[in-house]
Design a protein that fits this description.
elongated; mainly beta; 565 residues; 6-stranded antiparallel sheet
Length: 565
Amino acid sequence: MLSPRQTAATLAGFLSAQVVSAQTDASYSSGALGEGPYSTFVSTYATPPLWNHVLPINDTIKPQLTSGLIFIGPRGTATHQAAPYIYNQTGELVWDGSLDGYTQTMAYSVQQYQNKPVLAIWQGQFNAGGYGSGYNLLLNETYQVVGNVTTNNLPGIGADIHEFKITTNDTALLTAYNATQMDLSSYDGTADGYILTGMYQEIDIATGASLFTWNSLDHVDPNECYVSPGSSGTEALPWDYFHINSVDKDNKGNYLVSSRHCHTAYYIDGTSGQIMWKLGGKNSSFTGEGSEFYFQHDARFHANDTQVSIFDNGATSWETSEATARGLLIDLNYSNMTATLAVEAIPYYNLTVAESQGNVQIQDNGNMMIGWGQNPWLGEHNAEGTPLWAAQFGVGDVQAYRAHRSVWNGYPTTLPAFVIQSNSSTTGYASWNGATEVATWELLGSNDASAVVSLANTSAVGTFETNFTIPSSPSYSYYQVRALDSGKLSLGYSNFVSGSNGTVVQPAATQTPAVGAANATTVTSTTSSTSTGFSSASTSGAETSKSVPMLVTMSAVVIACFYAS
């Protein structure tokens, strides 16, 4: 029977399946590893897109970076598995959302809800016209769903793919697209045409009630935008004249809305919905070099609303307006209504436009985390726009709507994955999808109705999957791993796995450490009989811990049977 890694290589049919760690490799950039290289593992079926570090981080750059993990949702025809992913700074996998059932996403980031960090993930149906209809999930630090948010009072119209922003008042900003029949003859369309209106709502997350709804067609004439109907304007393909792609809210209760097809960021009154000013486009309220951008994404307020960050795509699939995409930080002077370009960040890899998607995230230290949209690149620039590091996560049609860096502590309630392979030597492989605090894997051995014995400790810092040699003497009927954090607190136990035939036995009932470092307690020893026929004991003193559900994942059972057959 093939291992998961061998199976992946067979199915992929190209070398990338055999590349299992992040690297800097010229063959990657050339396409020699395929259009969508990805990593594979022995202990899990995770297949995250592989990074190529084109501008690696050195010791000089490292102190200039903010802390946090990297959040992207790779998608596209060359992506092996489209899903939300979490990586560490070196490009090592932390969480593969597909293993928890999540598919391709666009609006995806870490946000705060009720003063706690949550993963915000859009899921739903994509429309061929470049928008979608679905819902937004909130996952807590144990990856459990604690919220589900979509539009309200918009029959048949769900939350769009482009925006999901949680405000400081625990409301959500959502975009939506609505097809409306309209006479388009004055816009070079047909009299019985159809137009897409760009909409957004502010939703109370706890109740689902809509607090504010805005419709572009009520305030922005299609003549103000740059996209003609062309072959669109039909019921099957409505004319997307506005194309809303981000919404932000300031402390005054007003909104900043990005319209890609109008090349404009609109400032909208939070009570009346009237447009108060426009940045960019045909009728900009501002003058100056910071007031020009094209087909942009991700307009955000900063510095008490005196700055706006924007990802300037510079192009779309049918038109190129600039030489390159850019990350922009623009100063706004409301006294003389001038827009001044404060920072311009251009791609490290080469000067090229981004035909779709992209974002700029301003870090706490002023750095700019940039996802280059349709181009499968991400990286970080300093506050002056100088590149600090850059990586690619594909060569062909691999893309990600946005890229963010955020602090995240993950404590999954699934079991750690543990697999044993025997060739010339016996090797154990351990991983735990989504666990961020594992510093050490402790290998444990046990026989029927005997105590668990600690055999070895292996560092897990900076790696997703850790492998270690299982000693041949003394031998045990079953082996197990325990995950420990940097303070030697117990985080979780894997199944017991037979070293001879892969048979799986669930962890002992006493092996239920608390989820979360704040509740985890120092590992100490105790001995008690369990329903599995095993005794659980540690070599280091008495253990007390808060009991939490320890779920046996289907993947762990499948993998064990995989090796037993």
